[in-house]
Write the structure tokens for this entry.
Amino acid sequence: MRIKFSEKINKITFFYLIISFAINFLRFMSIPFLMIYLSNRLTISVASIGFITGIPSAIQLLIGLFAANVIDRISFKWGTIFSLLFPMLGILGYIIFTNFYMLILSATISGIGWSIYNPIIMTALSNTTKTEHIDSVMNINYWATNLGGVLGPIVGVFIGAGNTPTPFIIFSVILLLISIVAYIIVPHDLKPKIDSKKTSPLHDFLTIVKDRRAVLLFLAFFCIFFVEVQYETSFSLYLKNLFGSTGVKLVAAMLSIMTFTIIIVQPFITLISKKVKTPLLLCIGVFFYIGATCLFFFSKITFLIFVSAVLFALGEIFITPKLQGVTAKIAPPHLQTTYFSFVTMGGNLAYFLGPPVGNFLLTANSFYLFTFILIMISTLLFSSFFSVKNLEQSLNK
């Protein structure tokens, strides 16, 4: 029986999908140019500017779990509003202030907002969607965020590319407008289901850590994002060493090919995934990752390196949305935001550790990096496969 689009996505779900696309579009329209914008305005060192721009990621890693647990105790309406207004204030601070410490404060406020935003979007989508449609909605959301990632930088280049505050002003204004719309249309009674027994944050954190499925998903997210962060770090250095100055252009081409592959292929994968069991999808995704890694490191032909980019993208399509769907299904109703925050912390940790570890291994020997990535991919298969198996066993009880 075919499921109609309107039955799968209600008004609130659709609103959160629009938010997901809009925010990713606006982030890619402005944040990639933040370093340039601040360097044009300030007289401090590039290292200091890098420190400022890195604070939001560090804040997400440090307080993300606590912030998500707080959101699990209030309504989605106010969680969504806070997750938008905090980044708005932080971005306005980048425009208004030139004092180093005020910019650190702005970056901190922005980081607090993003630590709320990322898990609450996933939780809102899963809470407003029927269980049997969660995987499809997660696929749609994944496609929408990637579409925003494609269009954002193009628009950002045309409206200043870091030479004017225009992209950041637009970002702030739209964040304010979306928060007003959220106040109007998100029901106040839409909130995570409250546990009959009131528990402390410490009890909630221990519940997650003791949940083998959550720990396996944390590990899976760490592995997949560790591989992804190499695209812009150690892989770019590898291609530069291999092809000289042309290597930089190859990196840009690879990233573009991967993104466009996701945009074009994702809708078809969404249709296929309904008919294929999750463990098989994960195995297919890992197969693509292994093929991509072997092609990338053992081919000296530009065309085959581009083929590896397509395979990397296919691996990502098969695995990442499926892991998001599994997270939504394993989380207790009253701890969904906290669960999403916990497993995505694996990705945040990978983005923190991935560049230095990858660059260190590449400097020692490219074969070491190749071997380590294969280990990450194997671990990804193990952790994701067993998290799904554990989920299926719990559902069958």
